[in-house]
Predict the structure.
Amino acid sequence: MNFDFSDDQKSLKDQARKFLADKSAIKVVRGVLNDDARSYDDALWRGVAEMGWLGAAIPEEHGGLGLGRLELCVLAEEIGRSVAPIPFSSTVYFFAEALMLAGSDAQKAAHLPKVASGETIGCFALSEGPGAPSVSSINAKFDGTTLTGAKIPVTDGDCATHAVVAAKDGAGVSLVLVDLNQPGVTRTTLKTLDPTRGHAKLEFKGAKAERLGAAGQGWELAEQVLDRAAVLLAFEQVGGSQACLEMATEYAKSRYAFSRPIGSFQAIKHKLADMYVNIEVARSNAYYGAWALSTEAAELPFAAAAARAAASDAYYFCAKENIQTHGGMGFTWEVDCHLFYRRAKLLAVQAGSPAAWKEKLVKRLEQRNAA
Amino acid sequence: MDFNDTPEEAKFRSEARAFLEANVQPKSNDKERLQRRLKPAEYMKAAKDYQRKKAEAGFAGITWAKEQGGRGLPPIYSVIFNQEEAKFDAPSAPFSIGLGMCVPTVIAFSDEATKDRYVAKALRGEEIWCQLFSEPAAGSDVAAGKTKAVRDGDDWIINGQKVWTTGAQFSDFGILLTRTNPDVEKHKGLTMFIVDMKQKGVDVRPIHQASGGREFNEVYFTDVRIPDSWRLGEPGMGWNVALVTLMNERLAVGGSYGPDYKEIFDFAKGINSPAGGGALIQDESFRQKLADWIVRAEGYKLAKFRTMTALSKGQTPGPESSIGKVINANQMMDIANTAIEAQDHYGIINDPDLAPLEGSFHQSYMFAPGLRIAGGTDEILKNIIAERVLGLPQDVRVDKGVAFKDLPTGR
């Protein structure tokens, strides 16, 4: 039994934590929060590129470090913990994973080195409006060379250079690869719950595009990309949840009411213990997802759904109870609780809502039992 | 990351498996178990035989030192044996508290002669032990026990009452937490003893539980004599001794009880949802709850794998393993409740011949309230997580600096 990260992976995690504590300190996050013109921190983006993180899981032949997905998981946890204001998940978990999953050799050779260097910022465009995306909800059209339609919202869509877009292609759905810096693309920045990350509506009017993967296979590919991203996002969510628990614990030890630390009251203790239990459940499921992702196990769809469902619920719970533990101060702009509360909601919905993943989990249990 | 045993662990696991296959029946379903149910005396004989074979084969006291008749192996081997044993109908229950908690305490706090007298017999299943801590006015606050021990020459004389004692009716010995000095602070006036459960003045009365069963007991002590040589630890140091016992409780990584998500998943295919719209398994609100149960059950199982990994590397599990019972007891209750309500009016029937799964959802429903309390209430376990894992300060203590006899008492 070795259900843990290796010493090398743990030291990568320590290194990442130190780097982010310095380069993604809360003032950096707030710099993006308080400036409507910026949707990410460019210096931090260049920093993570220099550290090699953007290419951590990209093979060396395409300019990456050629490490495994487990290394990416430990980085994701630290990025989540620091609420890093960079388009890391969109570029690495979605765009690069989609390329590695479905890209031709030429597409990989053209794009992956630029992802690894930080030159390309990627995004993944599925949603076209309220409600969970489905094959029938996709109206964007691809005619073999050009793309027409609109995607809203697209996380990091306002700063991305490229997008992977799900579009109708004849009878089915295909994934297509689009350069966003061309005349056929219009971006409109969106106001969202989490201003530390950029969001846009992307409109395509005959934009030049190319297929990623086989025609008509787009929905299945998108599901596979989402499964991979779900595991990585779960680590970001666990990292964020853990940060909330630590903030709440520190505050409960130092804040006095009725002449004693509020952490000595059982009402607070039990709240924090519940946070701990939720995190342990989420972390354990996320580890299983990491194992399945890194070994390309047949259990990945089930493990990814469990990890995502657990982590989305844990982060919401920890973020809201962190505010509650902080009392009135927790409801101020100056105290950082709301940054996590905001990010918790972005991460919960950006790759499909908790309810959607819980339904997937049960479906996958049914499939597993039928097999 | 992998889920494989090391070569040594794999070898041990296959030895354990071979031993179990040769000596006990594979796990049966509830119906078979009902049919095969033994009378208490027959069960106890089978249990003692099994324990003796375990000891002879080297599967009792796996982590104990060799001089205590153990095998001197790291805790991971004990977990591996327990995992394999759980796949069989092994009659090991009567020994779990004695060997898991009581005898390790005896080993830690007694001299060679005492150890020679008790340890080997316990390991071979010849003598059974129980733990006598809880009292009517000392549950979560177990250090508030009032059972009195008064020195009389070379003996101590015991008077008082213990409660919720598992296995007292068939135990030969117990470890007994007593109040020897009511004039000092609560935690400082306690002393631990070994007590002979078969002697005059020890009166064991089964408790008729809310669930209908009688698995636990009240134990009354009336002028019971214990020689001073049976004392564990110094007089007044009983709380420190008790903490060692309770620490060993944590090493017993608990399993789940009763039907879990797999059982209710199968059940839900064959019954209509009371909310309408076809089978329960098609009911969206049920599916969302089912997902939550999967996440929690798998999360708990996987958390145990993380604990095993730590054990495998030679680390000891800390208080974080307290999360198991908080998750399991509540989930067991919730699943049972959902399964019963799903049957609508019929759900009230718990007759094993008529109820689904031989009434095991009903058994869960009635036993879960006890499980949320036994071995540390949900609330106490959360206090442990908050104080020992997260480092939050203790609650304000109104019993500090006050003699035990002067502490306020309610009912």
Notes: Residues 7-91 of chain B form one domain.
